[in-house]
């Protein structure tokens, strides 16, 4: 069953943080396995950067090899370029398109099940990434942006604008990830659900971090995270997962929520 067919009648359980786990000393394959064991049915590649074609292909292969025993899907993770467009910066739109096109083609040829564009704050950049994916592969496309507590991105984009533009761009899944915890993201999720007929995916952080003894510490527990995410799932979202600070213990709780029989909202 392909990903789009599966998502029609099943809640997607996405994985949690990659960086958090890498910083704890785990290798990528072990991280994928841990999230799959926890109940994730879609995992993301370790490509949250402008990786080389070889690294993207290898990352897809590692994730696919881990997922095959769990009948799970692999999304090729595509991040923002980290640059500003002209005239604020030096990045041109054609140059950005070429960057995303190269990443999409590398992931597509390597056998990814979806293109997962995430953590964008610039709507134009997100649109260009989606266009590059639409024009260069036939895979389902996720696109999630990151909003601050004021419900705007760092670049000032609001949720209705994001929903309208990316729905028109032809994405298959819309979503919000990073920046805030699940308590703050509930209203964002509800707003996005009001603004689109598309399936919505939500991946908050484990709350807002603080520095303690030189270390980044997240204060939301897996139990507290799951309690807030259950309320988000009740909205009828299509997928739930975790971003910064979340671990397999968090995803295990989300898998429990999905097993309760919740189904995505019908458009």
Gist of the model:
This protein has about 270 residues and is α/β, with parallel strands linked by helices. It contains 10 helices and 10 strands. An 8-stranded parallel sheet has the order 1-10-7-6-5-4-3-2.
Textual characterization of the structure:
It contains ten helices and ten strands. It has helices spanning 3-9, 19-23, 28-38, 53-67, 93-110, 123-136, 159-169, 182-195, 222-233, 248-258, and strands spanning 12-13, 42-44, 73-78, 114-120, 141-145, 173-177, 200-203, 210-212, 215-217, 239-240. The protein has 267 residues and is α/β, with parallel strands linked by helices. It is globular, with a radius of gyration of 17 Å.
Unreliable spans are none
Portion in strands: 5-15%
The largest sheet, given as strand count, sense and whether it forms a barrel, is: 8 strands, parallel
The string of secondary-structure elements, in order, is HEHHEHEHEHEHEHEEEHEH
Q: What percent of residues adopt helix (DSSP H or I)?
A: 40-55%
The secondary-structure class comes to alpha/beta
Rg, please? 17 Å
Spatial strand sequence of the major β-sheet: 1-10-7-6-5-4-3-2
Would you tell me the overall average pLDDT?
95
Q: What is the molecular shape?
A: globular
**Number of helical regions:** 10
**Amino- and carboxy-terminal Cα gap:** 21 Å
- The total strand number stands at 10
């Amino acid at each position: 069953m392909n990903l789009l067919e599966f998502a029609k009648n099943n809640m997607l359980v996405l994985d949690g943080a990659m960086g958090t786990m890498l910083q704890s000393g785990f290798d990528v394959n072990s991280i994928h396995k841990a999230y799959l064991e926890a109940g994730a049915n879609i995992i993301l590649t370790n490509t949250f950067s402008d990786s080389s074609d070889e690294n993207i292909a290898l990352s897809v292969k590692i994730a696919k090899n881990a997922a095959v025993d769990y009948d799970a899907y692999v999304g090729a993770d595509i991040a923002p370029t980290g640059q500003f467009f002209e005239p604020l910066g030096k990045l041109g739109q054609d140059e950005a398109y070429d960057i995303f096109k190269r990443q999409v083609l590398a992931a597509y040829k390597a056998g990814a099940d979806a293109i997962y564009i995430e953590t964008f704050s610039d709507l134009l950049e997100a649109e260009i990434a989606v266009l590059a994916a639409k024009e260069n592969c036939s895979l389902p496309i996720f696109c999630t942006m990151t909003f601050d507590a004021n419900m705007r991105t760092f670049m000032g984009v609001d949720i209705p604008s994001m929903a309208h533009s990316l729905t028109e761009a032809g994405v298959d899944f819309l979503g919000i990830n990073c920046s805030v915890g699940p308590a703050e993201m509930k209203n964002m999720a509800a707003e996005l659900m009001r603004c689109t007929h598309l399936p919505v995916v939500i991946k908050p952080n484990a709350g807002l971090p603080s520095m303690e003894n030189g270390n980044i510490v997240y204060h939301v527990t897996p139990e507290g995270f799951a309690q807030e995410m259950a309320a988000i799932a009740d909205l009828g979202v299509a997928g739930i997962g975790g971003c910064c600070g979340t671990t397999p213990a968090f995803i295990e709780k989300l898998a429990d929520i999905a097993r309760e029989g919740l189904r995505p909202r019908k458009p």
